[in-house]
Amino acid sequence: MLGLLKDGRAKKMIGRNSALDGLRGVAVMLTYFVHYCGSYMAIFRGGNPNSVDLSGWYGAFDVALYVLFRSHHGVYLFFMLSGFLIARITLAGKFDYSRFVLRRIMRIYPAFLLAVMICALVGLVLHIPLPNLRVIAANLVFLNGVPSLGISGIVFNNVTWSLFYEMTFYFMFPIAVITAQAFSVPVIGAVALSGVVVAYVPSVIGFYAEFYLFLFFGALIGCLSKEQVGSIASSFPDSIIVIMYIVVVGLMVAGYLSTSQFVWLFSVLGSAILCKAIVGEGWLVGLLSWRPLVFLGRISYSFYLLHSVALSLVFAGWWHVAIVRFGVVFDALFIAGVGFCGAVGLGWLSYVIAESFYFRINQPVAVGGVSNV
Fold first, then answer.
1. Are the beta carbons of 16 and 297 closer than 8 angstroms?
2. What are phi and psi of 165, to 5 degrees?
3. Do residues 312 and 119 touch, judged by C-beta distance below 8 A?
């Protein structure tokens, strides 16, 4: 990390929006909790939280684990952040589609391919066989993100299902903007309509695509001017944001919201949080700008790709790291901490090897605002 600062362009990373990086850090921590708590509950607490809902868990400890397991909205925050940044890139001056696609490939694939190799090697160490060439080839274009195809991830790399949504959005969104501009249609209206169409039309052929709404909601924020973003941010005091988050997530965990209802409610909530982070004011932004959280946000993509590897190693040898004499709760926290530190180490190493070059040759995306959309 420090080596990057020696490069003139890399120094410009300091000018990035720290709150947005902190929000990425929150998103990837939530994702870590999902996979750690799900594995811990299935192995040590006698039930699979995927099939046993909240009513089937008793005691504060198990309920807390279940609540953290249901934190799948970490990935949804990533989607919203991606949608926002892609909109800013697309609407920032003269747009070159082919160059944009090339840069997206440069951004996504190096860390992804490194993660695939690490997953495969660790899988061999743990005596997990590699999938066949068909499955490997499908994973290289993220078709494991299409459930109807029945393609599994490569060993521990199931998290890459989300990259199918990301990559297809990267290809689609600029086309929607370019088409709207060619026919003199307001871009923000075209983006909203495209989001609804993309999220629901694929259901005709059996593909659940509602998660695209998160990407398009983020893109809608990316289409707004600085003044409009500020207006939304000021309309939601920090305390109201926190209350809304507790209520929406609480209702989802308790089973009172359908997936579709949660998607729409969290899209609105996430948009407000995103606007807060962009404006950069208030105590909530202060929390998001905490340096360790910002650092985690910087390496969040590599962390996301590799945290399952760290968790698999920890659970494979848990008897070597467990400290049972201090009780179950302490032991669970300790194992979680060991896995988290391992994921940070792997994430940082992957960032240095496979991501840092991208930031040396590309300037940060401006998050201020756009006009004439």
1. no
2. -60, -45
3. no
